[in-house]
Amino acid sequence: MNKRHFHQLLTRYRSGECTEREARLVDQWFALIDVDAEDLAGATSELTEARLWNAIRSRSGLDTKIVLKTTEMPMAESKPLHFFIKWRWAAAVVLMLAAFGGYQWVSRQNGRPGKLAAGETLANLVAKTNSTAAPMWVLLPDGSRVSLQPQSTIEYPTDFQSDKREIYLKGKAFFEVARDERKPFLVYTGEVTTKVLGTSFWVNRTEADKAVEVSVVTGKVSVFQKDKEKEARAGNLTGGVVLGRNQRVKYTPDTKQFTAVLVKTPIADEVYKNAFVFDDARLSTVAQTLEQAYGIDIVLANERLKNCLFTADINSQPLFTQLALIAASVNATYSIKGTKIFLDGKGCR
Amino acid sequence: MQPLLPDDAQLLDRLGSDDPHAFEEIYRRYWQRLYDFAYTKTRDTDAAEEIVQALFVVLWEKRVSLQVGNLQSYLFTAVRNRIIDHFKEKAFTALDDVDSPSEPDYPLFLDELEQAMQQAVGQLPEKTRRIFVLNRFEGNTVRQIASLLRMPERTVEYHITQALRTLKKLLKDFILPVAAILVSGKF
């Protein structure tokens, strides 16, 4: 069976430039490829539904857009401009809550001084638990936002009065951190502390194995053991790591090991959304474009690979498919080591 | 029917005016059927998930400019296109060598493909063939065929299943190498 011709047939079909006969052949072929009913995995469940929905929301940047849209009108009328900017996030959360209706907030005004780090003023702590099935946005006093996942709890002071912003997390959350260089933003999860040097990231702590996972969407964070904060601040990150975009770290308490790896589905910077169209481009250029788009190092293991030329429109593929396509076309292979991607092959003259 | 649920046309309207709740409602209403369809064709849960995800991300991106008469047929056409794109990519990834001079040319390939499919379908028992062609090639639903041929829907379904099973055997030298290479991954 001829893959090249088959690819050509499907390409012509999808571009709408095929003959009636080709269209009919594809339609017939498509009709024939069903699996038997008993082969169906039936792997669909509420879990799949929720997981897909979360992925769709985060990929379409939906939450941010909802928030901005729903708040601009009423606020602009009733508040002076400088208030509007400061308050729109807060108002957004209220509106979202009203809209969804079903959220239950567990809120306590009593502080829990036992959990406060030494030196912290006796600020009141607020605890929020998401007992719903959907993620929930929580606005922090500094304007940062947290998408709290189901069955997760965060605690934070009603006012960040001290010289740092400290948040306690149990479970999983996505953080969008407001910039304030004078007050570092710290998330405590069990034995692990995540310090934000940039803007948005995930923290996931599974209760069962006490392992902590942190992945970075934009910006930079450093991750280290809770009792090593002084060393970390002094820039000594032995035992901890600094994570960049599209990287994640897994902490295993038994060995006190931090391992930095790539996230499962790296996301390209918005600016590079349509940058992946290549026409006889040298592989060095292709690799550079990917590096900049994803913030991931791509190493051409063989100098001669740079000379290879690549032609394709790979805008709509995820990174690892893009890499597979590139590798296949220049007769190379790609591998991931830590946070780097290596392309290796004979190369071209 | 619950009268409180908005119909598809209302959902489309609200989606067009940026309503994320309408978007969510569309997702809840259709994701399972779209996912099942993608899985039936690809036999690949990862691929099916990616197809459904990408479809909804694009639906939200295009919400304002979208010109859709019927939401359901729009979604199913979109998911079908994505499934075909999936096979296209797989065929592309599976390309091993740039030059294989022994390949017959493209028109010949079309002839072979057509012949193989026709022969296979031709070998089905007459009644099964008729039902299969009505359903798969001419797009009639099981119910339509049942009323056309005056037979129970269950019988129609039986013939379709039989046809698919037989065709799989008959076409294994031709279609299945394609499908197997393209589809595999899980097998």
Automatic annotation (TrEMBL), chain A:
Residues 138-221 form the FecR protein domain. Coiled coil: none annotated. It holds the Pfam family FecR_C. Residues 276-342 form the Protein FecR C-terminal domain. InterPro entries: FecR, FecR_C, Ferrdict_sens_TM. It comes from the Bacteria. This is Anti-sigma factor.
From TrEMBL, chain B:
It comes from the Bacteria. Keywords: Sigma factor, Transcription, Transcription regulation. Residues 26-91 form the RNA polymerase sigma-70 region domain. This is RNA polymerase sigma-70 factor (ECF subfamily). Residues 115-167 form the RNA polymerase sigma factor 70 region 4 type domain. Belongs to the sigma-70 factor family. ECF subfamily.
